[in-house]
Write a structure and sequence with these properties.
seven-stranded mixed sheet; 7 helices; Maf protein; about 200 residues; 7 strands; alpha/beta; hydrolase
Length: about 200
């Protein structure tokens, strides 16, 4: 049984431009169509898990509105949280340095929210939204190490100012939870949620 059949024969659309999420889906045999949402990310939520679920839902719904029946849309959003503070994408080396200073030598959380929508035609969808959390433990870093990483370009477009699959791996002490979740998409949980979603659809 190939992956398309296992996922109900739905045409998979990823509502994200993230190459990392595309690569993760490729690991489990899915080659999605890439159709990133252009929505401005806004939410009134404050808790990290609620923020990522809400934003993933907005992205998926935005793209699903333009999809025909037989399409499966996957939207996702990832944030890094230190205590109650959410760290987004730094954008500049200076901001990256500040964020790295908040996570070095301690444990932080990575939350990814995912929304999966099955497009049924005539604007109807059947879907699920969930969030996954992974604890990440980071070794203490010297100011020189922090400055060197902040200036390498890698952290600028990544939540929390680091990529666990890149150079920052040198400072990862360990994780509790799903590694793929830290990269940007919790594959195991996603697969289980889609199986249930397809079964629910068959029961309708």
């Amino acid at each position: 049984m190939n992956r398309g059949e296992q996922w109900g024969g739905y045409h998979v659309v990823l509502a994200s431009a993230s190459p990392r999420r595309k690569e993760l889906l490729g690991q489990i045999g899915i080659e999605p169509e890439i159709r990133p949402s252009q929505l401005e990310e806004e939410t009134g939520e404050r808790r990290p898990e609620q923020v990522v679920m809400e934003l993933s839902r907005q992205k998926a719904e935005d793209i699903a509105a333009g999809c025909g029946a037989g399409t499966m849309v996957i939207g996702a959003d990832t944030v890094v949280a230190v205590g109650s503070e959410i760290l987004g994408k730094p954008g500049t080396p200076m901001r990256a340095y500040e964020m790295i200073g908040k996570i070095q030598g301690r444990t932080h959380q990575v939350y990814t929210g995912v929304t999966v929508l099955l497009c049924l035609g005539e604007g109807r969808t059947h879907g699920v939204t969930f969030a996954e959390k992974t604890d990440v433990h980071v070794y203490p870093m010297t100011p020189e190490e922090m400055s060197d990483y902040a200036g390498c370009g890698e952290p600028l477009d990544k939540a929390g100012a680091y990529g666990i699959q890149g150079r920052f791996a040198a400072y990862i002490k360990g994780i509790d939870g799903d590694y793929a979740n830290v990269v940007g998409l919790p594959l195991g949980r996603l697969n289980q949620e889609i199986k249930v979603l397809l079964e629910d659809r068959e029961d309708d």
